[in-house]
Design brief:
Strand 1 and strand 2 form a beta hairpin. This protein has about 140 residues and is an all-alpha fold. Helix 1 runs antiparallel to helix 2 and helix 1 packs antiparallel against helix 5. The protein has one domain. The protein is elongated, with a radius of gyration of 22 Å. It has six helices and two strands. Strands 1-2 form a two-stranded antiparallel sheet. It is about 80% helix and about 5% strand.
């Protein structure tokens, strides 16, 4: 009887330990997918931003479109920054959050009385920061792979 109890305890421990490992793997994959989506959002914006910013300087419709997109990106930053990262991804999450906060500051500084001041955006480090965020894709891909 005692042997059965010991064997049952061992199997139970292995099963529970396996569940924790599986949960951690699923959490890592879920986070990697969210981070990849977030970085792709910045990559997409980074590709069209120079043209949008240039056009916004002379066209009110383009400026309104850019303002709308920047506000959407600010919401995306807040959403992603509040994502809970699994232990294995804490370091990369912190790096993305830091870049997000720097981008958020640039965008907010380019707003004057609720309106976008194009010259402030043109003279900012926005593109450099976006490139730094997108360069973290390799690290995120390793989490999901």
């Amino acid at each position: 009887m005692r042997k059965l109890f010991i064997i049952g305890t061992i199997w139970g421990s292995l099963f529970l330990g396996g569940c924790n490992v599986l949960e951690e793997v699923n959490s890592s994959l879920d986070y990697a997918n969210k981070a990849t989506e977030h970085i792709n959002t910045w990559n997409d914006f980074g590709q069209k931003a120079p043209q949008l910013i240039k056009g916004a300087a002379t066209n009110e419709e383009t400026k309104a479109e850019l303002e709308k997109e920047l506000n959407t990106l600010l919401e995306e930053i807040n959403k992603f920054n509040n994502t809970e990262a699994p232990a294995i991804a804490e370091s990369v999450h912190q790096q993305i959050v830091e870049k997000n906060e720097a981008i958020k500051e640039v965008i907010e500084n380019a707003m004057v009385n609720g309106e976008l001041a194009i010259e402030k955006l043109e003279n900012s480090e926005l593109m450099k920061l976006i490139n730094e965020v997108t360069s973290l894709m390799n690290v995120v891909e390793k989490l999901g792979g």
